[in-house]
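Blackboard transcription, Thursday session:
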Amino acid sequence: MTPADAAAISVSGLTKRFGPVRAVDGIGFSVARGETIGLLGGNGAGKTTTISMLLGLLLPTEGRVSVLGHDMTTADRYAVLPRMNFASPYVNLPYRLTVHQNLKVYGLLYGIRKIDARIAELADELMLHPFLHTPARRLSSGQKTRVTLAKALLNRPEVLLLDEPTASLDPDTGDFVRSYLEAYAGRSGCAVLLASHNMQEVERLCARILIMKAGRIEAAGTLPELLAAFSRDSLERVFLDIARAPEAAP
Amino acid sequence: MTPAERRDAQARSAFAGHRLFAIVLRHLYVMRTSWPRLLEMAYWPTVQMIVWGFASSFFRGHSSWVAQAAGVLIGAVLLWEVMFRANLGFSLSFLEEMWSRNLGQLYLTPLRPHEHVAALAVMSLIRTCIGLLPPSLLAIALYDFNIYGLGLPLIAFFANLMVMGWSVGLFTASLVLRFGMGAESLAWVLIFGLSPLAGIYYPISTLPGWLQHVAYALPPAYVFEGMRAVMFDHVFRWDLFIRAAALNAVYFTGFAAFFLHMVRVARRKGLFLNMGE
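(Written on the board underneath:)
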């Protein structure tokens, strides 16, 4: 299979051990181009570790991880990094730089042509104008989330990894971000992997859902498939069933 | 070429000027908004130059060695500041990413580690020039000593000391990458360990025999000996220059490889995920 035919994300036998701890334990899944997949799991389930390996920031102990057909564990990842991006409210942008300066620096890193026009376009879409020339350290949580999202969309990614993009947002801002992501994924054909604790968000945005626990994928499927498999009427109940079940022996 | 083809070509490129420029621009933005940072860059070199300028004035009347070459001590302190500022400029630009917890974000962009290193070297050059220009001009006004009068040899000395400063900066950046901010203080003090061996204010022959061998394993010893050869004997010692350049090539290559190894260690241990103060 050539990279052009490959799935947006392909993971098999992926394992990450930190000493005796198996943070991710032999997981496998794939995300098709244009598909949005939800990654659910409690704290310490292995979601962020999985995303870090997908980004190439963390090397797996075992297994394979590729994005758009490129191996993320080798220098091959430099061929795909311009085509993917990542957003999380937990990572910082240089706090002394203004929003515009930050976006310009990241735009240059991604080799964006007409970077000022692209920043203006994203500022319109994500309503950044009122604080475009404000230092990042002075932003509220909601403003910071939108700026981080703008950074992640600068290069019009074909694969977008999101780690709890609406954490700590008020309902109004959270809904704005979800609506934006829904529209963006629909019109761009971008594959999205969304790690979240917000059940409604995952139900609304994701075609398929993976539920992780203790580094393993305990359940996977569409929302109706998961509800039927666990005989539950809400994703939250399914999540709680998995979270509260005794852990299987390694 | 379509945008997609251009993007793919950029991605395949092992070195891209726009990525280097992005990192330089990021640091210039920080410098531009902070006049205390600009002041700090020139403050200490100026104070050092003034102190050694007065010391020179005193020694000229009490030391035949200093009297032979007026300004030898001022020249020495200015060149030492080149290496010190080169190191500090490199290390501080790297630490800036750690302080703002931004290193992980940078390394998930197409930025390659060697482009990052090149950008840090450019920033170091800019910071060094900003820091050294005022004291070098003040030395002309206060002590009638013009370091630019050294002519072309000054470029050779400057280049060798810059590269040595970068090498030490690469080493400390590698340690910070591996051991976190606990190693930050090394960025400030490690370079001072080289000063007794560099022969800044005295010939290397002053050192005990065994220590001379250690000194001659380091590029600055050749640079400062070379500076004295120009100032006392009015000759540029090519042999000293070539030895300094060769040693610099070895140290820089070695520490660059060490840095790249530490980037890989950081990827294996997950250090990019929880970096910062």
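Lecturer's comment: Chain A touches chain B through 33 residues (CB under 8 Å).
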